[in-house]
Each structure stands twice: as C-alpha cells, then as structure tokens.
Batch of 4 targets.
Target 1
Amino acid sequence: MLQYASMKTIDHHFKKLILVCVRSRENSACCAARGAEDFFDELKLAMATRDPNVRVVQTQCLGNCIDGLTVVIQPDNRW
C-alpha cells in the first residue's frame, strides 16, 4: 500500500504561477527544441523585476507540445 505525505497549505505571496514546459524528447516536437529553456530564463528575469508576486517555474510535458512552446498561467488557466 502506498502512503502519501499529507498536503498542507502554505501561506505565500505569489498571486500567479507561470508554468513553462521545458520537456526534451528525441525525434518529436517538444518545447525544448523550440527554445523553452532560454524563454524560461528571460521570462523569469523579466517577471522578477516587474512583479515579485508572480512565480515562474519549469515543468515537464503539459500535453500541448504539438502546438508550440507551452506556457500556462495559473490561477487564470490561460494557455
């Protein structure tokens, strides 16, 4: 039987979370092949100077790589 650590609420100051897919795959379309890591670095730096209440993080596949570099803004659910 698997046991999971209980989830807890953490009080933080972030109003938005931006997820940037940086997934790399061989022989298929992926965000990494479209420059996702450079985009992530530039976006993270830009947001840190503009709005410290927005957190930018890397993530793996968000299932939308076929359409191009994938970014999700939460809690707005904007892709």
Note: Strands lie at 16-21, 54-59, 71-74.
Target 2
Amino acid sequence: MLTQDQQNDYHFMIGLAYYKTNDFDQANNHFAQMMDSNSRYATSARYYYAHSMYMSGNYETALAMVAKKVGRGAALLIW
C-alpha cells in the first residue's frame, strides 16, 4: 500500500507523462487527484493542469486556475 505522499508523487509523475505526450485529458485526471494536496508537486500540478486545460481549448477553466493563483489581471497578461 502506498502512503499518501507516494500516491501524490505517482499521480504527478503519471500526469506529467501524459502531458508530455499531449494526452491532456488523462494528464488532468492525475493532476486533479493531487493538486490540492500538500504534496511537493502540488504547485507544479496546478500549473500543468491549467496549461493542459488551455491546450485542450478549455480557456475559461485555464484562466480561472491561473487567476486563482496570481490574480485575474496578471492571469490576463500570462495568457
């Protein structure tokens, strides 16, 4: 049985593998499993989740994710 930290690491690494192969839906399934945790990869998972949403054409969700973290004005500059 994996510890919670190990599960978070697993979901991030698998999500990143899917992200690198442009399978954004599968990537986001894994990022969503751990991006709100206290994992050392949570911040990166939120970034990749937002970018995956953007690349999939889910612009509103991507913008909302970025705006939540850096503020709406800055998010508009980023995208």
Note: The chain has five helices and no strands.
Target 3
Amino acid sequence: MAIQIIIGTLASGKTTNLIRQAHTTGFTIVCNTSKRCRAIMEQASSLQIAIREPIPFQNFLDRRYYGLGCAGFLFDDID
C-alpha cells in the first residue's frame, strides 16, 4: 500500500478530501483525539457523506479496531 500525504494550509479542504476518500475506500479515519473524531463525524454528516466512525490514535496503537472490519486507515492531523 502506498503512502499519500495531503499537504495544505488551514481550511484548505484536507479533511474534506480525507472524508471523501474514507467514503470511497471504506477505510477508517484515525484522529489524534476522540474530540477530533466526533468533529469529523459531524463534518461528514453535514456533507451528507457516510463514513465509518473514526477512531482515536491511541485506539489504533492499542489495536482496538479488531472486529470493526477495518480494510485500511486514513490519518488526519497526525503531526
């Protein structure tokens, strides 16, 4: 699997692009915090785009995504 990095300025559509990719691929978005996960779900809802529920980075590190049927991962604001 190739790694793709999306770079842009603040409010340039990086997260919207990631939400669209998550919808298209079925991949799970990984965020730095649970609060950010909720914000992404709200943004996806406002865009009327269905995505899997994002998971916090700590859950990813602890492998607490097994059983969720994750095909792959997209990372948001992991810097």
Note: The helical segments are 14-25, 34-46, 57-61.
Target 4
Amino acid sequence: MSAVSRDGEMPLGVSIPEDGAYTIAIPDNADTSDYEAVVLKDMTTGTESNLLDGAYMFNAGKGKEKTKLHIQGNLQDD
C-alpha cells in the first residue's frame, strides 16, 4: 500500500480498453495493516467505497479517466 498517500487523497488515473464494467480491488497480498480505511471515491457518481471491505465495481467508456476516481488512505491511530 506504499503507493497510497498516507492520510491524503490523490486522483487515480485509469486506462479503459473498451466500454464496460470494471472492478478495482486491493490485492490479497497487499499489506494494509496500517490503514483503518482505503477509500475509493467515484467523482462522477459521488460514491465512496472502502476497499478494505471489498472491491468497487463501476461502468466506464473507452479511454483514459484522469479525474473520475480518487483514492484516500486513512492510517490507524497509534
């Protein structure tokens, strides 16, 4: 999870190969023990999903999406 900004939010750019349904998830082998939440925000729909609770599914059209999705990591309090 080192690529996720700690206690910050950043855009998550994705390249969509064709129109359709897509899923974003944290890999099973990722170390997420320092995080209380890893929130994916869909800026188009206003949906927020904690990826620690499961994958996020969305529909998108072919092309590059630079502003649709944002990701935010929330560290656990010590």
Note: The CA atoms of residues 3 and 73 lie 10 Å apart.
